[in-house]
Amino acid sequence: MSKIKELFFKEAFLENRMILKSDVLRFLEYLNSGGDEGTQFDAKDIGKILNHNQLVALDKVKTELGKHLSAFANTTGGLIALGIREERDEELLAQNKNLLKFSINSYEIEKLNLQHILRAISTAVEPKIDFSIDLVKMEEDSGQQGKGRGVLLIFVEQGLTPPYQVVYNRSYYFRHGESSFPAPHSLVSALFSYRRSPTLHLNLIKYGNPSHYRLLISNKGRAPALHAHIIINIYPRLMKGEKLLLNYQQIKNSTDGLWSVKCLLGSHKNNSMKFRFRALPGEIILPEVNEVLFDFPAVHLGQEIKLTADLYCEGFADHQEFTLSL
C-alpha cells in the first residue's frame, strides 16, 4: 500500500485501480493552479535520461534520479514524474501568463523497457528502497497497438532503514523545499541513530486459578518484524506422571494460524522439550503489538524450570532466559 500514491492520486488509490490519463491531467491542473507540491514531488524532463538513440539510458536513471530516490527515502517519501516538464524560470513565467509551470512532455512507450527501469531504480540506492511505478498512457498511436506516448510515475516511500545512499557517488541526500541536496554529516549521523529496526521481546506472565503461564511476543522496535523465527527450550519437561502437560497440539491450537510449529522432545537423559516457531509467509509482527505465543500450566516439579528463547527476524537476533517459580 503506497502512502505516496494515496497522497497524490487519492481517487485511484481508494478505487484500487491504475492511474489514468484523466488523473494525471487533474494533478497537473492542481499544480498549475497554485497547488502546493511541497517537498514530495519532483518533475523530470524525460530528455535528461535518454541516450543518443532516444532510448532510456539505465546509467542515467541511476545518476539523474539517484539523488531524488535517496532524498525522498531519507525524508517523507515522494513522487518522481518522468514525462512532466517543470519551468523553473520565474521571470519567464511572470512575463508570459499563458506559460504553464508544469506541462506534459511524454515519451514513446515502445522505447521503454520497464524491467530494466525497475532494475536500475532498485540498484541505484543502498539499502534498497520501497517504491512502485505506474506507466500512464497519455497519447494513443492509432496505427500500432502497444505504441503511444506516456509518463512514468515513480512512488518512493519513506524508508524504514535510513540513511539511503546513492550507489554511483556514495552520497546521501535529503529533501528541502522543492530540491534534493547532499546531506550534511550531522544529518547522516542522526539518520543512522534513528534507523528503524525490529526488536523482538518475550514477556512471561502468570495468571488464573489454577495458575497458568502465558508467553507473549512483542515488537519493541520501530519497524515490522519480517520472517520471525523463535526457538523455545524448556527444562525439565512439563510432565505430571507420564503425561506431558504441554505438547505440540496445544501450542498449535493457540497460534491462530500465524505460526508454523514444530515440537522436539529431548532425550530422556536431558529431560528437555523444544518448540520451534516460524512465522507463516506474509505474517509480520508490527511495532508495539503483543501476541500470545502459547499458555502452559504452572506445575510444581520440585525444582526450578528454565525457559530459554532464541529470537530471530530480518535484521535482529537475541537470546532471553526465564526462571519459573512454581
Low-confidence stretches: none
CATH topology term of the largest domain: Methyltransferase, Cobalt-precorrin-4 Transmethylase, Domain 2
Rg computed from alpha carbons, rounded to a whole number of angstroms: 27 Å
**Biggest sheet statistics:** 5 strands, mixed
Task: State the share of residues found in helices, binned by percent.
Answer: 10-25%
CATH architecture term of the largest domain: 2-Layer Sandwich
CATH homologous superfamily heading of the largest domain:
Schlafen, AAA domain
**Class by alpha and beta content:** alpha+beta
Q: Which outline best applies? A: elongated
CATH class of the largest domain: Alpha Beta
List the helices and strands and how they pair.
Blueprint: H1 3-8, H2 10-14, H3 21-32, E1 41-44, H4 58-74, E2 78-82, E3 84-86, H5 90-95, E4 102-104, E5 107-108, H6 114-122, E6 125-126, E7 131-140, E8 148-156, E9 165-166, E10 171-176, E11 179-182, H7 185-193, E12 200-207, E13 212-219, E14 225-226, E15 229-235, E16 239-240, E17 243-244, H8 248-254, E18 259-265, E19 273-279, E20 284-285, E21 290-297, E22 305-313, E23 316-324
Parallel strand pairs: 1-2
Antiparallel strand pairs: 2-8, 3-4, 5-8, 6-9, 7-8, 9-10, 10-11, 12-13, 13-21, 14-20, 15-19, 15-22, 16-17, 18-19, 22-23
